[in-house]
Amino acid sequence: MKIQASDVAALARGCAVLGTGGGGDVRTGALAARRAIQEYGEVPLVRLADLPGDALVVPLSGIGAPTVSHEMIHGEDEPRRIAEEIERIFGRPPSAVMSSEIGGANGVAPVAWAAQLGLPLLDADGMGRAFPEVQMVSMYVAGLPADLVIMSDVAGNVVTIRPVDGLWSERLARAVCVAAGSHALMADYVLTADGARGAVIEGTVTRALAVGRATDGAADPLGALRGELGAYELITGKLADVERRTAGGFVRGTATVEGTGADRGRVLTLELQNENLVAMAGGRILAMVPDLITVVDTETAAAIQTESLRYGQRVTALAWPCDPLWRTPKGLETAGPRAFGYDLDYVPVEELAAHG
């Protein structure tokens, strides 16, 4: 299939939901995607099986604080500069673009980057959601070497990093990102199609489209979305407090939801680091990373990103299981609650819900 301009709205809605509050504002990514399709043409959506084994796949994503991305919008030069650097290093041009994370703008904007580069988009990503740190990708969990990161910023700088491992890739890329104003375009884990097999999460662009379309024309958008995701409803209520700060290239903070209706008297607290990481109520954990936690508008079921949370919003918090890869020992070591500094043993959201 080809991604057309008419597909972008559904893709953006789905990516916003899968973004678990992060990944950047889908509105800017959707505008860029529609404009690029109109200028350069529709974008083929391909599977790994469609690519030659030696085809170079380029995972692209914006790195930095989502609050900054509203003002520092990627242009056409950044993906082009990264593609040129890849060709210089590998001696051949890239064959396909892949989203590093399907969540948020980082799931939508690759449509624009693929169109600008005249390349297909791979129906896959490295997370199945959004995560805030560079090493928190399926390729790292699969054991692929994190030995190349290429970054470009709005000022025209191109930085090539040769880290010794995934943790160093995060430290060094984050330092470059902060120097660039807490926002840059990044390619990491440039890999061949053969190397990507078993190391990426396939079908996630198609999945985002299905999630985005689930509420189209629905009499009960929230129910339709919950059904499509297989999600648990944590609370419905009013956003009562938001504490948020931008530091070290991240948005960090907490959000508090006071229950209404059937949830009156309950209070939910969300811990944030770009994404929603942990949900707690009444001294009990309701959901935690790497499972997905998303805050949506109660009436429309549209996802609300962490930087857009505002006092008084009527919201519902949903949670559902992550890709099985993240529940492996390496997956939990990489993106489980302890990876974010929480002294918590991971418990799957469906087990937490069963004891609710």
From TrEMBL:
Domain of life according to the entry: Bacteria
All copies of domain S-Me-THD N-terminal, residue ranges: 7-161
Transmembrane segments: none
Pfam entry (one): S-Me-THD_C
Residues in S-Me-THD-like C-terminal domain copies: 166-349
InterPro entries for this protein: S-Me-THD-like_C, S-Me-THD_C_sf, S-Me-THD_N, S-Me-THD_N_sf
Annotated organism of origin: Nonomuraea montanisoli
Protein's name according to its UniProt entry: DUF917 domain-containing protein
